[in-house]
Automatic annotation (TrEMBL):
The keyword Disulfide bond applies. FAD binds at residues 43, 131-133, 297. This is FAD-dependent oxidoreductase. It comes from Microbaculum marinum. Residues 2-311 form the FAD/NAD(P)-binding domain. Gene3D superfamilies: 3.30.390.30, FAD/NAD(P)-binding domain. NAD(+) binds at residues 168-175, 191, 257. Residues 332-439 form the Pyridine nucleotide-disulphide oxidoreductase dimerisation domain.
Length: 464
C-alpha cells in the first residue's frame, strides 16, 4: 500500500482484517488530505460558520440576534481538536495493532515487482497506489511573487483575513468562501467559467443566491491577467470588457482543482502508465502493470473520500477474492457542504437530455415542506429524473440536509428501485426527506386527473 489517506487506509484495514500481510508506506501525515487538510478541517470550519450565522439570524425564532464575536485563534483550536479526535483511528499505532507493517517514508518503484521505502525493499504479490492529489495551481503571472493559500495552509490561519480573495468557484472555493464570509471576512470569488459549473445550473443557482445574500461577491467568467503584491496583501488584476480591473485583498486562496500525485514514484520503472488525470486504470482499478492497482484521487475518477473507500472495497474484492469487481459511478453521490447544501446522484438534467429521448422530471420545493418551514430553511428544491416508466436515473437536491436526503436515492439507484418504491414507504413527519417522497408522488399526478381513473372511482361508488 502506498499512501495512508482515505483510500490506502481503507485497503490496509480491510486486507489486515482478512489476515493478509500488509505493508503500508506513508511519507507524510497519516490520514492524508481528508483528515488533515480537506474534509475534516473544512467541515469543522463550516460548523463554526454555521453557529455564527445562526446567532445573526436568531431574531426570526424569537431569540435576540447578536453580532457574533469570532475568535480565529479559537476556531483554529476547534478545527485542530476535531482533527485530533479522529486522528487515532488513522494512526500508525492503530494500524500496527491491526497487524499492518507501517513504514514512514517516501515510496518509489525499483522495478515492476519491487518498491523501495527508505531503507526497506518491499516485494509483494500486489501493490495498491493511493497517493492522492494536491492543489493544482494555475500559471497566473505574478503568483510566484505573492503569498497565497491552498487547502494545505488555509486551516492554519489564526487571524481573520479582512478580505479573502478566492480563485476558483468549485466545491473547495465555495465551501470556504461562505465559511469565511460568515466568520466575518469580506470575500470575493473569482471564477473563470461558471461557479459549480459541473452541476445543474438551476440547482446551483439556489446555492449561489444564498452566497450572494450572505455577502460573498462572486465574479463568474473572470479572466485573471496577473497578481501582484501589495503592502499588506495581494492585488488581482482582471482583464475586463473595458480594460483592466483590480481586486485588492488581504489574503488569497487558490482553489482551482486538484492534480494527481504520481511524481516521485518512478512509475516508469514499474511500467505503470499515467495521464493528466492520474494512473490509468481499467474498471477493476488495475493499472497497465497487472500487479499494481490504484485507488482514490490518483485513480483519475471522482475525487471524494467516499469514492476512495468504494475503490478500496472494489480492489479488496479483486485482490483477495478474485471477484473481478468493477467500479460504476452511477450510484455515487457528491455533496457540496455550503448552506444550503447541494447534492447529486446519477445523471443530471443536461446529461439525460443528451442520452435519452423521453424522460420525466419530478420536483418538489422545500417551501412546501413543513419541517423546512419550521426551521425557516425553505430555499431550494429536489429534482428527480426518471424514465417514462419510472426507473430512477438521477436526483439533484439544493437545500437543507441535501447530503442526508440524497443517501436513500443513491440506494434506490444502486438497487434499481423505481419511483413507486419511493412513494410506498412511510416517511416520518415532519422531516426534510419528505421532499423526495412528494417529488416521487408527482410521477402519478397525471393519472390522478386521467378520465379513466375518474371513471373507475365513479364506478366503485355504485357499490356504496
Ligand atoms: C478542502 C477539501 C475539502 C474536501 N472535502 C471533502 C468532503 O467533504 N467529502 C469528500 O468525500 N471529499 C472531500 N475532499 C476530497 C478528499 O479529501 C479526497 O478525495 C480524499 O482525501 C482522497 O483520498 P486518497 O486516499 O486518494 O488521497 P489522500 O488522502 O491525499 O492520501 C494520499 C496519501 O499518500 C501519501 N503519499 C503520496 N505520495 C507518496 C509516496 N511516494 N510515498 C508514500 N506516501 C505517499 C500522501 O502523503 C498522503 O498522505 C475534500 C478535499 C479538499 C481539498
Ligand atoms: N464536499 C466535497 O465532497 C468536496 C469539497 C471540496 C473538494 N472536494 C473534491 O475536491 C475536488 C477539487 O475541488 P476544487 O473546488 O478545487 O476543484 P474543481 O475543479 O471542482 O473547481 C475548480 C474551479 O476553479 C475554476 N478555475 C480553474 N482555473 C481558474 C483560474 N485560473 N481562474 C479562475 N478560476 C479558475 C474552474 O473553472 C472550476 O470552477 C472536487 O472535485 C471534489 O472532488 C469535495
Amino acid at each position: 500500500m502506498i499512501g495512508a489517506g482515505s483510500g490506502g487506509l481503507s485497503v490496509a484495514a480491510a486486507a489486515a482484517a482478512f489476515g493478509v500481510s500488509v505493508v503500508l508506506v506513508e511519507k507524510g501525515r497519516m490520514g492524508g488530505d481528508c483528515l488533515n487538510t480537506g474534509c475534516v478541517p473544512s467541515k469543522a470550519l463550516i460548523a463554526s460558520a454555521r453557529r455564527a450565522q445562526q446567532m445573526r439570524e436568531a431574531d426570526a425564532f424569537g431569540v435576540a440576534a447578536v453580532d457574533p464575536q469570532v475568535n480565529f485563534r479559537r476556531i483554529h483550536d476547534h478545527v485542530r481538536d476535531v482533527i485530533a479526535g479522529i486522528a487515532p483511528t488513522d494512526s500508525v499505532e492503530r494500524f500496527r495493532a491491526l497487524g499492518v507493517t507501517v513504514i514512514e517514508a517516501q515510496a518509489r518503484f525499483e522495478d515492476s515487482k519491487t518498491v523501495l521505502a527508505g531503507e526497506t525493499r518491499i516485494k509483494a504479490r500486489r501493490f495498491v497506489i493511493a497517493t492522492g492529489s494536491r492543489p493544482a495551481v494555475p500559471p497566473i503571472p505574478g503568483l510566484d511573487t505573492v503569498r497565497f493559500h491552498t487547502n494545505e495552509t488555509i486551516f492554519e490561519i489564526t487571524r481573520k483575513p479582512a478580505h479573502l480573495i478566492v480563485i476558483g468557484g468549485g466545491p473547495v472555493g465555495l465551501e470556504l468562501a461562505q465559511a469565511f464570509r460568515r466568520l466575518g471576512s469580506q470575500v470575493t470569488v473569482l471564477e473563470a467559467a461558471r461557479a459549480l459549473g459541473r452541476e445543474d445550473p438551476e440547482l446551483a443557482a439556489v446555492v449561489l443566491d444564498r452566497l450572494a445574500r450572505d455577502g460573498v461577491t462572486l465574479r463568474s467568467g473572470a479572466r485573471i491577467a496577473r497578481v501582484a503584491k501589495r503592502r499588506s496583501g495581494v492585488r488581482v488584476v482582471l482583464d475586463g470588457e473595458d480594460g483592466e480591473e483590480t481586486v485588492d485583498g488581504s489574503a488569497l486562496l487558490i482553489a482551482t482543482g486538484r492534480a494527481p500525485v504520481t511524481d516521485g514514484l518512478d512509475l516508469d520503472k514499474a511500467e505503470v502508465k499515467v495521464d493528466a488525470k492520474g494512473i490509468r486504470v481499467d474498471r477493476t482499478l488495475r493499472s497497465s502493470n497487472r500487479r499494481v492497482y490504484a485507488v482514490g484521487d490518483v485513480a483519475g475518477g471522482p475525487q471524494f473520500t467516499h469514492v476512495a473507500n468504494y475503490h478500496a472495497g472494489t480492489v479488496i474484492r479483486s485482490i483477495l477474492f478474485r471477484l473481478g469487481a468493477k467500479v460504476s459511478y452511477d450510484h455515487i453521490p457528491r455533496v457540496t457542504y455550503t448552506d444550503p447544501e447541494f447534492a447529486q446522484v446519477g445523471v443530471t438534467e443536461a446529461e439525460v437530455r443528451e442520452r435519452y429521448g423521453h424522460f420525466r422530471i419530478l420536483r418538489w420545493p422545500y417551501a412546501e415542506n413543513d419541517r423546512a418551514r419550521a426551521e425557516r430553511e425553505t430555499d431550494g428544491f429536489i429534482k428527480v429524473i426518471t424514465t417514462t416508466r419510472g426507473r430512477i436515473l438521477g436526483v439533484g437536491i439544493a437545500g437543507a440536509g441535501a447530503g442526508e436526503i440524497v443517501q436513500m436515492w443513491g440506494l434506490a439507484i444502486l438497487k434499481g428501485l423505481d419511483i413507486k418504491a419511493m412513494t410506498g414507504f412511510v416517511s416520518p413527519y415532519p422531516t426534510l426527506s419528505e421532499v423526495g417522497k412528494r417529488a416521487a408522488i408527482q410521477f402519478y399526478r397525471p393519472s390522478l386527473t386521467s378520465p379513466w381513473v375518474r371513471r373507475i372511482i365513479a364506478f366503485m361508488r355504485l357499490f356504496g
